[in-house]
């Protein structure tokens, strides 16, 4: 059966995105050209430009998919925890564990802020991880496990700490050991936020 133009467009987008993601992860943004991406994806450069106006535009799309994937990993970890408090800790742990994945490190933590700029990078982060964190904290306050306070400052403080730790892990010469130490430090930090029981 002949493919429709819509199916062809979707297949081209998928091929370009998957190929660009792999090449950006393996070689870094600055070492990958559009010609290489198009050839590796098996499409013409014209087809690439039909979907993306520039390499930066393509990278932004790839980065958004990576951040979405990380956000989904965090949400799955939190949802599988036995309760909402354990879910917060599990979500934070999942985010830090994701930060040690070489693909995520290169695209999201090393190239992302420098290619897009801090403001655009933060905007994408807000759409993925920060939104899940705000929902989790709001739920904990509703359940009485966390003292009622303005959510946005708490999201910024925790998100900033998590992102800083993730960037540090991305540059670590011993990420396995440093991740274990970070996880050990994370637990009492999160526990300190818990509402004292009377």
Automatic annotation (TrEMBL):
It comes from the Bacteria. Residues 10-70 form the HTH tetR-type domain. PROSITE patterns: HTH_TETR_2 (PS50977). Gene3D superfamilies: Tetracycline Repressor, domain 2. It holds the Pfam family TetR_N. The keyword Transcription applies. GO terms for molecular function: DNA-binding transcription factor activity; transcription cis-regulatory region binding. Keywords: DNA-binding, Transcription, Transcription regulation. Residues 33-52 bind DNA. PANTHER family: HTH-TYPE TRANSCRIPTIONAL REGULATOR BETI (PTHR30055:SF234), HTH-TYPE TRANSCRIPTIONAL REGULATOR RUTR (PTHR30055). This is TetR family transcriptional regulator. It comes from Amycolatopsis coloradensis. The lineage of its organism: Bacteria, Bacillati, Actinomycetota, Actinomycetes, Pseudonocardiales.
């Amino acid at each position: 059966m002949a493919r429709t133009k819509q199916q062809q467009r979707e297949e081209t987008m998928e091929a370009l995105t998957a190929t660009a993601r792999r090449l950006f992860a393996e070689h870094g943004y600055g070492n990958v050209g559009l010609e290489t991406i198009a050839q590796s994806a098996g499409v013409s450069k014209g087809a690439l430009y039909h979907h993306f106006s520039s390499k930066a535009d393509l990278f932004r799309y790839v980065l958004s998919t990576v951040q979405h994937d990380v956000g989904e990993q965090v949400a799955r970890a939190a949802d599988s925890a036995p309760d909402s408090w354990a879910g917060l800790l599990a979500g934070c742990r999942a985010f830090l564990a994701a930060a040690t994945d070489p693909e995520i490190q290169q695209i999201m933590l090393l190239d992302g802020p420098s290619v897009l700029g801090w403001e655009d990078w933060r905007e994408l982060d807000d759409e993925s991880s920060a939104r899940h964190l705000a929902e989790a904290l709001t739920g904990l306050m509703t359940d009485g496990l966390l003292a009622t306070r303005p959510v946005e400052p708490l999201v910024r403080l925790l998100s900033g700490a998590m992102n800083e730790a993730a960037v540090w892990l991305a540059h670590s010469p011993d990420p396995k050991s440093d991740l274990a130490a970070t996880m050990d430090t994370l637990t009492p930090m999160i526990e300190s936020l818990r509402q004292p029981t009377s």
